[in-house]
Amino acid sequence: MGGTRDDGFTAYVAGRRSHLFRTAYLLCGDPHRAEDIVQTALAKLYVAWPRASRADSVDAYVRRVIINSHLDETRRPWRRESPVDQDRLDRAAPSGVSPEDSDALWTALRALGPKQRRVVVLRHYWGLSVEETAADLGVSPGTVKSQTSAALDKLRTALVTAPIQGGGPR
Amino acid sequence: MSDPADRHLEDRLHALAHGVNVPVVPADDDVRRGRRRLLRIRLAMAGATAGTLAIVLGVTGLTAGDPSASEPPIANEPSTSLPADPTTSASEEAESTGRQEGGGDTKVGAQAPPSSPSGSAETDGTDADTDRNNTGVAGSAGNVTTGDSEPHGGTTIGPGHAPSTESDPTSAPTSAAPTPTSTPTSTPTSTPTTDPTPTADPTTDPTVPPTDTTKVRVHQVLRYYNEVLAEQLDPDRDHLQPYNRKTGNKETTKRDGQLFALGSNYRWDGPDGLGGLEVTVASGWDQVDWECGASYTDWECHAPSSGGEVATHDGLRQAAVEHVDGQVVVLTADDVAADETALLEAAADDRLTLPGDAPVSPPTLDPEAFATAGVTALVGPDESFTRTSIDRTPEVRGSWSVADTARGTLSWSVRPAYSDAGWQCLKSYRSCTDLVIDSSGRVVHVAAVKKKLGGGWVVEYDGPAYAVRVTTTDQKFPRKRAYAFVTDVAWQPSR
């Protein structure tokens, strides 16, 4: 438990925690579980910090832990019904997106299957390539492509049927 | 991602994520948690190492005083010539090891001469399932049992018995020379007197589900489902392709060794090319992705008078039927024009059932009745509740207001107890308490949610049929209302 580990880990957490929380939140849709997932992921990261930082793959390591933690959650039968956003009603509307837009997008995301949601988050929120996403998820690039395509089709359909105001293309 | 529509979607996804209220958690908290985890891992490793060392030292200490452990073999014993006879030594090894693990059977069979009957038994035993399935022989349950038992017969009948009469250790060592020269090819001529009959008869009748309480053979069950569906939907097998364990997929949901859902996507050769017919057999509605009845879905759903439900969405047509035992069968055709009556009839087939001792789900609760009862019990006279979502789990969610002032989110839901791990005190809770609320000793779990994670509290009662939960983001919501609601016996029906 040397100082090097703590210093590096603390710096990483300070810089990336919010991003990781948002990732977990997009995956599971519940702030409580997102926080649980992030705490678990960071605790595992602390243990593996020397290895992960040496390999210069801290983000990839945490991403995988978050994805796997979420996968574990969805595999548990009692967690298959993912709840809707608990503070959707009382939170401030994000800048640049109207509440209707946020609601429609979140509803569309929620309608995706867990695997498709993971692919969408990794590819379109993290901005990973097909190969990187495939490596993170442990599937073939072809699977990533097909799941991305299917997910985007669903999202487009859902968002077209629920027209939005504001937040258009920039 | 060069498509403008995709870029637009990406922008909106980022905007959505950035609108999330991120809890402020000091990095020191994460460091502390990480240290604790590291400490736990190191302690576990140290404990395991110490335990292993103790076992090794203990065994060493026990065998150190045993003279037979270091006793050299006697030179005049015929055992020195025995290794020249491969069959004898192999069979003796099999006698000692083959009883303990199945791998020993195959190993012994491999040492037998190619012409011996045990050779064929070996191939059957190692690949019985795959080979026989492809021949289309019905009764797959019997196939596997036969495959398992045949190598036993081969090993005990072939190289195991005959050589032991030839090279008896009691024969004089002086005549040891001829023994190795006698090739084992003559051994199999001794006809097997014991009949290697399989212990279980093959199930050739496709109307009998391949149930086995000891071990569920998933591929066999999926093949059986395929046969049932072919009988219902495509008797001539013009479209539905037989299940192949090498190419067919299987989807299972298991927990604690119990099978909660089983399904596969069979290939359906239609006029427009290759499609799919997916079957899912689940222990209850909570184990299938079925969005009919939920407020957030865009599925088109209807319930024919004949029973069951039909959904059309995303180019698919699905039929779901709940059987009398609570199991739910969902059939999905990737064609919205699929005959829904035929799908419903097929889904209602009693033979589509989970194998073995499948978990039993409680009777379904009426979501609307649950929602209405929740409003009655939880919302006071000067308060209001605006429902924002409901699904068939059931789960009701909405905003709670007092004197037209919004006070936060209020939700109530149930989770079936048979598939649930029960109450868990999550890390996102500030505190967890168990309260005895009446003289009968009923206990409700109460948790206060951390303020940075939205605040409020959770009340849950783990009933025999369902775990009933009420959640609110307003700390001041009267909890006693929730106690009465969650413990209402109306939410604990029995089948």
Helices and strands, with pairings:
The complex is a heterodimer of chains A (170) and B (495).
Chain A: H1 3-28, H2 31-47, H3 49-54, H4 58-75, H5 99-111, H6 114-125, H7 130-137, H8 141-161
Chain B: H1 4-18, H2 27-64, H3 86-97, H4 103-111, H5 117-134, H6 140-157, H7 162-166, H8 178-181, H9 218-233, E1 251-255, E2 258-270, E3 273-282, E4 300-302, E5 309-313, E6 316-322, E7 328-333, H10 340-347, H11 367-378, E8 383-391, E9 395-402, E10 405-416, E11 429-436, E12 443-449, E13 457-462, E14 466-472, H12 479-486
Antiparallel strand pairs in B: 1-2, 2-3, 3-7, 4-5, 5-6, 6-7, 8-9, 9-10, 10-14, 11-12, 12-13, 13-14
Helix pairs in contact in B: 3-4, 4-5, 4-6, 5-6, 9-10, 11-12
Cα-atom radius of gyration of chain A: 17 Å
The largest interface is: A-B, 74 and 69 residues
Structural class of chain A: mainly alpha
Please, what is the average pLDDT of chain A?
76
State the helical fraction of chain B: 25-40%
* Count of domain modules of chain A: 2
Give the beta-strand count of chain B.
14
* Structural shape of chain B: globular
- Helix-strand category of chain B: alpha+beta
Briefly note the CATH topology name of the largest domain in chain B.
Protein Transport Mog1p, Chain A
The count of helical stretches of chain A stands at: 8
As an assembly, this protein is: heterodimer
Helix content of chain A: over 70%
Q: Count of helical segments of chain B?
A: 12
Mean pLDDT of chain B, as a whole number? 73
The number of domains of chain B: 4
What does it look like?
The complex is a heterodimer of chains A (170) and B (495). Chain A is mostly helical and 170 residues long. Chain A has two domains: 91 residues, no CATH class; 67 residues, Arc Repressor Mutant, subunit A (Orthogonal Bundle), CATH 1.10.10. Helix content of chain A is 71%, strand content 0%. Chain A is built from eight helices and no strands. Chain B is α+β, with helices and mostly antiparallel strands and 495 residues long. Chain B has four domains: 35 residues; 112 residues, no CATH class; 130 residues, Protein Transport Mog1p, Chain A (3-Layer(aba) Sandwich), CATH 3.40.1000; 125 residues, Protein Transport Mog1p, Chain A (3-Layer(aba) Sandwich). Helix content of chain B is 33%, strand content 21%. Chain B contains twelve helices and 14 strands. In chain B, the strands form two sheets. Chain B has a seven-stranded antiparallel beta sheet with strand order 1-2-3-7-6-5-4. About 27% of the residues of chain B have low confidence. The chains are: A mainly alpha (170), B alpha+beta (495). At the A-B interface, helix 1, helix 2, helix 5, helix 6 and helix 8 of A face helix 1, helix 2, strand 8, strand 9 and strand 10 of B.
